[in-house]
Specification:
Strand order of the largest sheet of chain A: 6-7-8-3-9-10
Helix content of chain A: 25-40%
Distance between the termini of chain A: 44 Å
CATH topology of chain A: Rossmann fold
Order of helices and strands of chain A: EEEHEEEEHEHEEHH
Number of strands of chain B: 10
Oligomer: heterodimer
Structural class of chain A: alpha/beta
CATH architecture of chain A: 3-Layer(aba) Sandwich
Number of helices of chain A: 5
Structural class of chain B: alpha/beta
Strand content of chain A: 25-35%
Distance between the termini of chain B: 32 Å
Number of helices of chain B: 11
Strand content of chain B: 15-25%
Strand order of the largest sheet of chain B: 6-7-8-3-9-10
Helix content of chain B: 25-40%
Shape of chain A: globular
Largest sheet of chain B: 6 strands, mixed
CATH superfamily of chain A: P-loop containing nucleotide triphosphate hydrolases
Largest sheet of chain A: 6 strands, mixed
Radius of gyration of chain A: 17 Å
Radius of gyration of chain B: 19 Å
Chain lengths: 206, 247
């Protein structure tokens, strides 16, 4: 059974109450078989956080499903979804989410400790030394059979070093389109990723 | 067996998980450091360990006794003292009064203390002993507000020690202290380490690297790293940071 399966997932945001026009559309269809560390990149506003929210079940998809170890997260009790997949937000915001279906009619999570950990742009600072501890922690989670997502918005050279050091595969999000890449080298071959990283890649070459 | 042990502490407030899974153990006679970025859950962890919050899951064992969910005053009487990030002193009272109020002996007998406590030999002896430990002899009659910030920190530690604890939890003792006052505090803690088991939350990594026997790094409500200062400093990224340059 796959660790995480994102099946034909679609989220469309609309504007206007009566005459609805779509403003943003996110499409994702990928699966990750084994525990590991997955890097996620993409420009601002491309849908990274929305994808995280859909994976953790704190946002409802327009269609499609997310299976965490075979369990459809959107059918799990809302107060137990973070036992399957947990979203560590950029800042320490608390978001409340309600489902139309009451919790008693939904499934239990069946886990005490989250299976999928999604780190949304953790604060990396080369001066304080915490980076090493964070990376070791990601490795520990992987070794204990968890799946780790690390979303980074690289704006400094060392951000790429971190991704290269720790991530085994990558997800790239661009204007709502989600692509999967099997290695750091592979994602750098992808033209939209090259455009996005532009200057940073040149710095490396220099 | 460790003097104090927390096993798989989980704490949530409604829909937000503040402590995911914290396991810590503190050996008798050691100085233990807890560090982590803002919002990592360090103070919430202290609140759980000292009974101010009840953990949602997990257990806390002090000297072989399960103290999970016990009220803070019971835990304190068993020999677990703590200080807070914000200073909790009686500003108008003088230094020695702050100490006397925290003495278990005073609390045991306060109904019988009819004359001035300042004539009570037992209380005074105990209070002076504490003041001696924290280096405030000679300033006992000053209003606590008139002390320097560093000495107010020392007094706060004195208030925690007055309860005659076996383990002392200090929440960011260096916060707001300048270089000189921090140096004084290092000396004070080095003096106290022979008598007490100490657990300190600290932002200042250098301070911990200098003092602690064991350090736990908390982030995202979990212990992300643990080890001696040498072990932690050997990390490649720590070497690359401002700390590595000094170490």
């Amino acid at each position: 059974m796959a660790m995480l399966q994102v099946n034909q997932l679609k989220k469309i945001y609309f504007k206007g109450r009566f005459n609805k026009t779509p403003t943003f559309e996110l499409n994702a269809d990928f699966s990750i078989q084994n525990p590991g560390i997955v890097g996620m990149m993409g420009p601002n506003g491309s849908g990274k956080t929305t994808l995280f929210e859909l994976i953790t079940g704190s946002n409802s998809p327009t269609s499609g499903q997310v299976l965490v170890q075979g369990r459809d997260i959107h059918k799990v009790r809302t107060d137990q979804r973070d036992r399957l997949a947990i979203h560590y937000h950029q800042s320490y915001q608390v978001r409340s989410f309600r489902s139309f279906v009451p919790n008693v009619l939904m499934q239990p999570a069946g886990s005490d400790y989250p299976m999928v950990h999604l780190f949304d742009e953790p604060q990396f600072n080369t001066q304080d030394g915490y980076i090493g501890f964070m990376l070791d922690f990601f490795r520990k989670l992987r070794d204990e059979g968890r799946l780790v997502f690390l979303c980074v918005h690289p704006n400094e050279r060392f951000h790429l070093e971190i991704l290269q050091e720790i991530c085994e595969q990558f997800i790239f999000v661009q204007k709502g389109a989600v692509t999967q890449h099997e290695s750091y080298e592979a994602v750098l071959e992808y033209a939209p990723a090259q455009d996005y990283l532009g200057q940073l890649l040149k710095e490396r070459a220099a | 067996m460790a003097l104090f042990e927390a096993r798989n502490i989980h704490k949530r407030f409604g829909s937000s998980v503040v402590l995911e899974d914290i396991s810590l153990s503190f050996e008798e006679g050691q100085v233990n450091g807890i560090m982590g970025p803002n919002g990592a859950g360090k103070t919430t962890c202290f609140h759980c360990l000292t009974g101010h919050y009840k953990p949602s899951r997990g257990s806390i064992v002090f000297d072989g006794t399960d103290i999970t969910g016990k009220p803070p005053q019971r835990i304190a009487r068993m020999g677990v003292s703590r200080s807070f990030q914000m200073m909790n002193l009686f500003d108008d009272a003088c230094v020695i009064e702050n100490i006397i109020l925290a003495l278990p002996e005073f609390r045991r007998r306060y109904a019988q203390v009819t004359s001035s406590v300042f004539n009570d030999k037992v209380l005074l002896t105990q209070a002076y002993e504490v003041l001696d430990q924290v280096g405030l002899l000679g300033q006992e009659w000053q209003p606590s507000l008139s002390l320097s910030y560093g000495n107010r920190r020392a007094l706060e530690i004195g208030v925690a020690l007055a309860a005659n604890p076996r383990i002392v939890f200090l929440d960011e003792p260096t916060s707001g202290l300048g270089v000189e006052a921090t140096r004084q505090l290092v000396k004070l803690i080095q003096k106290l380490r022979d008598r007490y088991t100490i657990v300190m939350i600290e932002h200042d990594m250098r301070f911990l690297f200098e003092l602690a026997d064991q350090i736990s790094v908390i982030h995202w409500g979990q212990v992300i790293a643990q080890g001696t200062p040498d072990e932690l400093q050997s990390n490649k990224w720590v070497q690359r940071s401002a700390l590595g340059a000094v170490a």
